[in-house]
Specification:
The structure is a single chain. With about 350 residues, this protein is an all-alpha fold. It has a two-stranded antiparallel ribbon. Helix content is about 65%, strand content about 5%. α8 packs antiparallel against α9, α9 packs across α14 and α15 runs antiparallel to α16. It contains 18 helices and two strands. It has two domains: about 130 residues; about 190 residues, hpI Integrase, Chain A (Orthogonal Bundle), CATH 1.10.443.
């Protein structure tokens, strides 16, 4: 197990990667505990050769309250371990190759059998998102009210610098503002560094009066997309300047632009953003993921493929991901247009060829 954990951690792991490895190892431990229950001679690993117990594992996880999509993750993580195990069996292992193949085949079969249920669950999730739709009009109202509220919060913070509630409100409003502008994930704001904000002013922005570009290096999909970018107007960048002046007097023990009581990253950004949404008296209680969904859907419904691709690139996710997980179903007007297209196609098919 220690060798497999070392394999998962790899070289120069980030804090988030280590947390993911811990989760994977926890799922694997649950699998091994289930397979070993009531059996002896565990050092031989022969307890793994039990296809029937593997096939019953998804039902057991569901009884324990796991979602079907979570069950799929368990099966995938376990399959990855078995691949590693078959290639580098631990010392003392007496599991036959035939036995490992049998277990791997049972896992694959279980994953296949739950696939339809997984798809139905994903459809239900999309339907739930549809009911929480944040319209472009709501996004517009959110941005307008944030522009009014953020300067007021900065003014109050300049007088009461150590007021944690005011600070959390500022973080919530700014996180909501950035999400409504670009659909960025929470990590873009929570991982933003002071040095990155200062670089925006020191670099190309001094040659262009239209605004400033902040490149956030630490975020979820930086391997695929590089830095997450934010373009801020002089007014918006001025908010960060004012906050940095307040921040310098607080002297946190990190370079994070926004921080918690211990100087670490803000983990309650969505909660703070929901509070800001409620304070602005906007309907519903969307998460920042719902806001991201709305921006992705707006891009799909209003832009050509080329522009949508560029917008998706800025959001740091693939349009295929947007289509699968974020973009909503077609609206009534869109379906009405499609219906007319189908009708025209049928009428055209009735015309005799010349």
């Amino acid at each position: 197990m220690s060798g497999y954990k070392r394999h998962l951690v790899g070289a120069l792991p980030s804090k988030k990667h280590v947390e993911n490895v811990r989760s994977k190892m926890g799922r694997l431990t649950q699998f091994l505990d289930r397979m070993a229950e009531g059996k002896s001679d565990l050092g031989s690993w022969k307890f793994l050769d039990d296809a029937d117990r593997v096939m019953g594992w998804p039902a057991d996880l569901l009884k324990k309250g796991k979602k079907i999509t979570t069950v799929k993750v368990y099966l995938v993580n376990t399959g990855q371990f078995l691949t590693y195990f078959s290639e580098t069996p631990p010392e003392g292992s007496r599991v036959t190759k035939r036995g490992l193949v049998s277990v791997a085949r049972a896992l694959k079969s279980a994953a296949s059998q739950i696939s339809t249920t997984v798809v139905l669950h994903q459809i239900q999730v999309k339907d739930d998102k549809e009911r929480r739709t944040v319209t472009p009009e709501l996004l517009r109202r959110c941005l307008e009210r944030c522009r009014t509220c953020i300067p007021v919060l900065l003014r109050d913070l300049s007088r009461r610098k150590r007021d944690v509630n005011l600070r959390n409100q500022l973080i919530g409003y700014f996180g909501l503002y950035v999400a409504s502008l670009y659909g960025h994930r929470t990590g873009v704001v929570s991982n933003m560094r002071v040095s990155e904000v200062e670089e925006a002013e020191q670099s190309g922005s001094r040659h262009d009066s239209s605004g400033y570009v902040i490149n956030v290096r630490h975020h979820k999909t930086n391997r695929a997309f590089g830095s997450a970018q934010l373009f801020l107007t002089p007014e918006e960048y001025g908010w960060l300047r004012r906050w940095m002046a307040i921040r310098r007097e607080l002297r946190p023990d990190s370079d994070l632009m926004f921080f918690n009581l211990n100087g670490g990253p803000v983990n309650k950004l969505t909660s703070f953003a929901r509070d800001a949404w409620a304070r602005m008296r906007l309907p519903g209680s969307p998460s920042l993921t719902d806001i991201r969904t709305a921006v992705a859907t707006m891009a799909r419904n209003t832009q050509c493929a080329e522009v949508r691709q560029r917008m998706s690139q800025l959001m740091c996710h693939d349009t295929r991901t947007a289509d699968r997980f974020y973009a909503m179903q077609l609206t009534v007007s869109q379906l009405a247009d499609m219906r007319r297209t189908f009708d025209l196609s049928r009428e055209a098919d009735q015309q005799p060829l010349e």
